[in-house]
């Protein structure tokens, strides 16, 4: 489980996360929604210890994320992250991209890593594209490749940061399908998304972020269909 306790985060004098409390249970899909600039990406970066925090605590399966003696490799192996922008290595094939981290980080023998990579490419529907470089893949395929790369490290949690926002509309569905399949396997997921329909249908809970605070958290359908907070209602009116 991921526990976010009274977390504060500033960039210089500007506080962008202002005391957030949130617990993500194993097997849960939590969707984070909120206006651009409200702090959603920053929170994901804090969970992964890519950013320090100025107050509070984040605990992942008992590991104090920002603790002085925390093993960051161990922490990050628990957390798979997929971003909006594609980040595959351009000179490697899709297969080599997926095999890379298991080989380098987990010191897996090459043949075993390639076999694992093939399984994960099959899982995201890219088995037939294994030998292509990322530039030869569509945006939707590149995002599925990014998901396969993250999954190959056998994470306990998957964090998604607007992974469909840069895609042409016709490519969004294949990526969301992959995420729905992952949910069906019981993967714990935190999904930052502008896709309100996805949040309503695939989220267990939805958390609405407003200027660095958590304005409303609850069952997905309740938050989207019958928000309790006026600010949630106004946000949903703007984006729906
Ligand atoms: P969201 O993902 O909800 O759009 P972000 O977490 O990216 O929001 O940003 C929250 C706020 O923090 C914004 O005002 C943004 O400009 C600021 N911010 C994000 N990253 C940095 C950074 N590295 N340095 C300074 N300010 C940043
Ligand atoms: Mg963001």
UniProtKB/TrEMBL annotation:
<keyword id="KW-0813">Transport</keyword>
<dbReference type="InterPro" id="IPR050086">
    <property type="entry name" value="MetN_ABC_transporter-like"/>
</dbReference>
<keyword id="KW-0472">Membrane</keyword>
<keyword id="KW-0547">Nucleotide-binding</keyword>
<dbReference type="InterPro" id="IPR030679">
    <property type="entry name" value="ABC_ATPase_HisP-typ"/>
</dbReference>
<keyword id="KW-0029">Amino-acid transport</keyword>
<dbReference type="GO" id="GO:0005524">
    <property type="term" value="F:ATP binding"/>
</dbReference>
<dbReference type="Pfam" id="PF00005">
    <property type="entry name" value="ABC_tran"/>
</dbReference>
<protein>
    <submittedName>
        <fullName>Amino acid ABC transporter ATP-binding protein</fullName>
    </submittedName>
</protein>
<dbReference type="InterPro" id="IPR027417">
    <property type="entry name" value="P-loop_NTPase"/>
</dbReference>
<feature type="domain" description="ABC transporter">
    <location>
        <begin position="2"/>
        <end position="236"/>
    </location>
</feature>
<comment type="similarity">
    <text>Belongs to the ABC transporter superfamily.</text>
</comment>
<dbReference type="InterPro" id="IPR003593">
    <property type="entry name" value="AAA+_ATPase"/>
</dbReference>
<keyword id="KW-1003">Cell membrane</keyword>
<keyword id="KW-0067">ATP-binding</keyword>
<dbReference type="InterPro" id="IPR003439">
    <property type="entry name" value="ABC_transporter-like_ATP-bd"/>
</dbReference>
<dbReference type="InterPro" id="IPR017871">
    <property type="entry name" value="ABC_transporter-like_CS"/>
</dbReference>
């Amino acid at each position: 489980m991921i526990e976010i306790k009274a977390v504060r985060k500033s960039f210089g004098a500007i506080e962008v996360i202002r005391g957030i409390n949130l617990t993500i249970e194993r097997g849960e899909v939590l969707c984070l929604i909120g206006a651009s600039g409200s702090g959603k990406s920053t929170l994901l970066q804090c969970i992964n210890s890519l950013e320090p925090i100025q107050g509070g605590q984040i605990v992942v399966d008992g590991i104090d994320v920002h603790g002085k003696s925390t093993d960051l490799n161990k922490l990050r192996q628990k957390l798979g992250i997929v971003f909006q922008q594609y980040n595959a290595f351009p000179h490697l094939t899709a297969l080599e991209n997926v095999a890379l981290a298991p080989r380098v980080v987990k010191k897996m023998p090459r043949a075993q890593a390639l076999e694992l990579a093939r399984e994960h490419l099959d899982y995201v529907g890219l088995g037939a594209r294994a030998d292509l470089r990322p530039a030869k893949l569509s945006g939707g395929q590149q995002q599925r490749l990014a998901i396969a790369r993250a999954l190959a490290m056998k994470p306990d949690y998957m964090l998604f940061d607007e992974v469909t926002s840069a895609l042409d509309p016709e490519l969004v569905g294949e990526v969301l399908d992959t995420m729905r399949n992952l949910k069906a396997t019981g993967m714990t997921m935190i999904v930052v998304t502008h896709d309100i329909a996805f949040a309503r249908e695939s989220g267990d809970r939805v958390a609405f972020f407003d200027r660095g605070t958590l304005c409303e958290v609850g069952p997905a359908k309740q938050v989207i269909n019958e928000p309790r907070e006026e600010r949630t209602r106004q946000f949903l009116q703007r984006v729906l």
